Amino acid sequence: MFDRIKDSxxxxxxxxxxxxxAVRELVKDIQRDLIQADVDVDLVSDISDRIExxxxxxxxxxGVTRKxxxxxxxxxxxxxxxxxxxxxxxxxxxxxxxGLFGAGxxxxxxxxxxxxxxxxxxxxxxxxxTDRPAAFEQLQQVAEDAGAAFYGRKEAEDxxxxxxxxxxxxxxxxxxxxxxxxxxxxxSLREELSAIEEVFRPEQKYLVMPADIGQSxxxxxxxxxxxxxxxxxIVTKMDSSAKGGGALVACADSEASVKFVGTGEKMGDLExxxxxxxxxxxxxxxxxxxxxxxxxxxxxDPEELLEGEFTLHDFRSQMEQVTDAGIMDxxxxxxxxxxxxxxxxxxxxxxxxxxxxxxxxxxxxxxxxKDPSIISGERKTRIxxxxxxxxxxxxxxxxxxxxxxxxxxxxxxxxxxxxxxKQMMSKLGL
Length: 430
Description:
Layout: H1 2-13, H2 20-36, H3 41-57, H4 66-81, E1 95-98, H5 105-117, E2 123-128, H6 135-146, E3 149-151, H7 159-169, E4 174-179, H8 187-200, E5 204-210, H9 217-228, E6 232-236, H10 244-253, E7 258-262, E8 270-272, H11 275-280, H12 288-297, H13 312-325, H14 327-333, H15 344-347, H16 351-362, H17 366-370, H18 377-387, H19 391-409, H20 421-427
Parallel strand pairs: 1-4, 1-5, 2-3, 2-4, 5-6, 6-7
Antiparallel strand pairs: 7-8
């Protein structure tokens, strides 16, 4: 979905004019892209009408070009279409995973266990799928891979009883129950989930569903919400489905908030949902080759960044050097928005913000700087108090660090050579 829309937006951005004809062509391209991504046709019509009306009828603000104005309208509309950023509780309590066959509940149970274990919680998983062959063994292996405690009974027939026993047996902070699926939400599955809920009383009830169901996600979310009152949705297999955008939009349209998205097979391939991350990928990219020229002039050899784990020490060093070299300003100037029109998560990375982050890192221990995944709620509070800032600012810093680390993970040494620029840009999704 987003690759196609990015192409359409970049075609508009590179055009010589942003007149009525160009705007209508952009709207037509985005309309086609959304329909191909399995977004509901009526919703696509509403979105395209809004973009066209606002882009052609609204007065262009002072200090902004018409092209920038149109792109900002597109950005805001797409972000709104994808719903709200997930609000993840630092101490979520117990979690029940539900969904149909093939949704990826068992793998997701492991990914959630890994996610919260890295944040300082003791996590346990319970095998409440007593129907599917080998479900017990699969969850047991997943729990081991995630470093989580496990409870299940191989020959059990009553999932509610297994859950009741498991909650007594496990000595953990967070318990995750992996329930059974069916081909549809039939009466037997409703009764089974109700029985589990009655003995488990989870704080969070997440519906797990694959991205490839597209706009059908809306109906499924509404059905499970009616059955057990879900708190949110986890969309899996986002890495392999062209319909992933349709599923995300459908959830937003049904007011079922997406909490996490699964982006791969590994334990760490689970991301907190933020529509800004998706839409930011569409607004254009800076000239990486010219920026690489500047990076190569810095004191740090870029290949050194690829040796070992990318820590907060590395992040701090690179932020300071990038600021000193003026690379941040150049990167901002090459995007299709003026800086005051950028989304907040990008505009926040100013020189002042980087200095603020440096003060925050002064309040961290060497252990935290080397392994930021251990910074949980209590540590965030201590860091905020020590630096005279807030927990939300600590969260912002860690979010920007993770974004930088994810980018570094896409590089290899060969890609850092000038001759392999095309390969490097491909790894960045350009």
